[in-house]
# Entry
Amino acid sequence: MKKVISDKVINRLTLYHSILTDYIDKNIEYISSPQIADLLHIDNTQVRKDIALLKYKGKCKVGYQVYDLKNLIEETLKFKTIKNAYIVGAGNLAMALAKYDNFEAYGFHISALFDNSYLKIGTIINGKKVYDIDRLPEMAERQDVKIAILTVPRQFAQEVTDFLVKSGIKYIWNFTPCVLNVPNFVQVWNENLIGNFLQFTVNHDIDN
Amino acid sequence: MKKVISDKVINRLTLYHSILTDYIDKNIEYISSPQIADLLHIDNTQVRKDIALLKYKGKCKVGYQVYDLKNLIEETLKFKTIKNAYIVGAGNLAMALAKYDNFEAYGFHISALFDNSYLKIGTIINGKKVYDIDRLPEMAERQDVKIAILTVPRQFAQEVTDFLVKSGIKYIWNFTPCVLNVPNFVQVWNENLIGNFLQFTVNHDIDN
DNA sequence: AAATTATTTTCAATAAGAGGAACGAATTTC
DNA sequence: GAAATTCGTTCCTCTTATTGAAAATAATTT
# Structure
């Protein structure tokens, strides 16, 4: 797998995108690299280099065209490509994610949720139905879904992961605080919620 | 601000920590760098180097002592230091976060939630009370809380942020898909949920 | 209208950092 | 005692970030 765009750049591009969205709301036509850089407290050369990766040319003394640049980022990051995904484990976090319509803006479509509790199976959250997890293998194959968002309690994480792997899931977005053991052909992204924020509290002195 | 430990290392350390927790549950006394590396699909030299940063010495041919290493990581990442935080905006995501007891393991304590809806003010979620957001400045000063977890709808993000800044909040864990404009003495961590996972879907070909 | 100024992009070069390979040293096992 | 495994470290490579001109263009001044 060759990385066309590095992780760090992708992350920054999503932030630029969010700024651009805001500028469009405000009907501003141009944005400059120093403007973006100031908002994010990063270096403006960084911004220009990231944008240069997209082969996009700005206008001297004016900056970049907001609308075009936003579209280009969406194209590069494939926001318009629909990525179907299942949520596995219909707990609190799953509910929040299922109700979080913002996913769609990035091309993620939650097709269904899965759980093993009879209290949850059959319920509908934000138009998305909760199915018995036993049905996942069949549905995943039929709907050709390869992404699972894992939100089960930690003690079931590995067990359910094994089940997902057998079901043909290829990408697991792991919200559990566990390191999952998977074969090489399955990719895991550990959404280390707390770990990310720690980067913050470790190096600063938070004295309460 | 000098970074004693880089972001990437911190992120990996949290993953090691999660593996170590698992090993303790299984009553295994020692763990080696290749074992950790295999689970995370990274290089074992990397693991050794990260651990070397902690000034921890392993035992040749045996590995590292699970219990000690886990404690050392917790100490380094300040898991035992209680970090009080408020959740601002009592929506779906806030509910999920408030119910997510795992935060405590990392030293994060949610002291209270805040909202402006009379439907939510006064309710109690997982033992944590929802207060009128007007009370935040006074409470933050009295309780000396400097961390806010922002989960309001995107259209109110900036407005509420300005309010938080005026209230003396110094660290904002931003779950909204907005880039917040803050003064230099306030730090924002953009928890770019989708952005993180995109790193995944952009460079792989997910064909559905 | 021409010249100047200020801002911004672009290109090039340097510096810093992270990841991976390799090797000696140590220790357990056979 | 020999073999195998693992740690710790050094070195090298590749990536990423920063710095420093130079070119371009809009706005301002003369």
Q: What stands out?
A: Chain A touches chain B through 67 residues (CB under 8 Å). Residues 6, 8-9, 43, 45-46, 49, 59-62 of chain A lie near DNA strand D (CB under 10 Å from a C1'). The longest strand of chain A covers residues 108-115.
